[in-house]
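Recap slide: NUDIX domain-containing protein, sequence and predicted structure.
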Amino acid sequence: MNTSVSTHDVAVTIGRFQPFHNGHLAVLRQALAAAPACIVVIGSAHQARTPKNPFSWEERVEMIRLALPEPDRARVSFIPVRDYYDESRWLSVVRRSVESLLAERGMPTARVALVGHLKDPTSEYLRGFAGWHFKNIDRVSSFDATAVRDAYFGHAAGELDASLAALVSQAPPSTVAFLRAWAELPFFDELVREWEMLRRYKQSWDAAPYPPVFVTVDAIVKCNQHVLLIRRGQAPGKGLFAAPGGFIEQRETTYQSALRELEEETHLKLLDTAMRHALKAAVVFDHPDRSQRGRTITHAHFFDLGEREFPEVRADDDAAAVEWVPIERLVEMEDRFLDDHFHMLDHFLGLTQEA
């Protein structure tokens, strides 16, 4: 424990920790040196397991705790925060979550140090916490969590031990041991297959003169306090819930594409006048990290069919199943959605209360 007099009561550090590596550990050590107590904000909480987000927030907490000596573990608290793909909302939720925890501990006026590293423009959010003292630290290594995941999921058949051995200099021994044990779990092989599919998909665009930007559409259809969802029939996100949707075609408007994809995947087909009357909003979701396939901008169309009987539907095309799901169930299903589809539903239906 740091025995010097600190000018701060608590240090906060923020990350996804997918997985926890030596760069993260260096930041955490700086945070522990900056104040007697530390709060670690775990980002991308409540996400479905994917090659980008393989570990639950609870598993990431365990990785972090295992990397610390016992006395330091008692000084660290954890706050899971979901992705909102809306920076101002996310900043507000992080701040209020930290302030709420401090108030619970009788520290409503605590002096807060935010400890982190400005590695690139994606880290500029660290400057968004007015009133917190930002302590920028130097980067320890050019190796990052993406490289760890690529080594982990991209190992050659039968060579997982060799891949893990290569990570010894990049991650705490406890993380390497955690990864070895985690590879025995049933979803590891599924994520390896999905990682390989995504690798081939991105590789097929390597010859393009510019990085590709994909345009897609999605249809959020509400009826009688239910929403129409599909279960994906293929990777990426095989088995996950999603709004019906897909890629726009050359000679279609986004509205026309949304109706076509809706019909192809669910066989829901109402009169055009009925659908136009039901259309309540069309919103662009364009966060750079919203899709694992790459830069994908979607136009989500929100249809409200009112309190009528459910139109008949059946799964087809990319959908393995289709169902009308009660809106009240959606929050408990959050970790079973493709990409940002839960957050699209949240935008239109107001599922979460934060911010």
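The chain has two domains: 10-188, 214-349.
Residues 87-104 form the longest helix (18 residues).
(End of recap.)
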